[in-house]
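ok so for the tutorial part 2 we go from a plain amino acid sequence to predicted structure tokens. step 1 is just haveing the sequence, like this:
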Amino acid sequence: MKKILVWVVSALLTLTCLIINPLAALANAPSPDIYASDPLEARGAWKGKGRFYAGYGCPATAGKKTLGMNNVGISGKEFITFERELIPGEYTATIDVCDYTNYPYTRVGQVGMTAGGVLLTPTSSTRPTPSSGQTVSWSFKYSVPADAPNLGSPIGFEINVPRGGKPVGNVAFDNLQIKTTELPSANLCENTAQKNLIVNGSFETPVVDLLGFEPSIEGWTVSEGDAIEIDSQIVSSPSEGAQFVELDGNQVSKIEQDIPTQAGKTYKLSFAFSPRPGTADNKLNVRWGDKVVAQLDESGETLTAPDWKVYSYEVKADGSTTRLSFDDLNEASDGFGTFLDAASVKLCQ
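step 2 — the prediction. this is what the tokens look like for a chain of 349 residues:
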């Protein structure tokens, strides 16, 4: 009852702003977002052979400290693993590097982004050599297609100083950032079949007067959480039709549907996502079979109405049925967050 009252008050306060339903913008080429980062303030999450030391070297470019290596002729590897999974897209990983020694050279070997603990091969990289006391930025670019075999693996970053008998010097690292953008629309199939293989993709059934909490609805089941929350256009503006779903209803949840597919065929998966206005924590995880398609994270703190964006991906089927799921299990379970609407799966032709 308390949640319903909050919704009603929120709706009444914002209805005057909802004269026009915002148009859904196709988010095939947004600006890069920071997907994972570490300021290298302390060894903390970094694992390896203990070669990192906090506070060494040059002035910090992020935070107050850097992490340095002061090995001489000794091999060492440090790596960090993030709680983010590899998804299709274009990635850029950057890290600041400083040489704070008088050695004539700095030897740092394998450096870059990892997935499942395996170093990824960049499409391009830039690694300028810093002079003594100088800080430079190293950059690595990666392209991960929709059918990459390691999708869903946790991403990370590795710094490896190889054994070689030469002094590595004193090298400090700082301000690691991994940014990603969605795959451009040119990678999506241009022609699709008319039929949407998802049942009740815009959540129009059952019809609710204001909002409703259901253990299951036509086409969809709840695999985690207690109910599917369906909201009407009286509560807020849908992306299409008259209703949409909020995944963090009574609590965070996961909904899924088994889609009829043909093994080896490619499909276009689309859906609309908006953060809940006035709510900071809005996460959406999308899985196609056992592969992670997308992990989205948006703040709605400054919004007074939904900011719908439509995301589209190419996905391939491995069998006659493929399970599609949407969840927000990695956000705060507070009853507020993650709007979903207009889900569709269509055969590429």
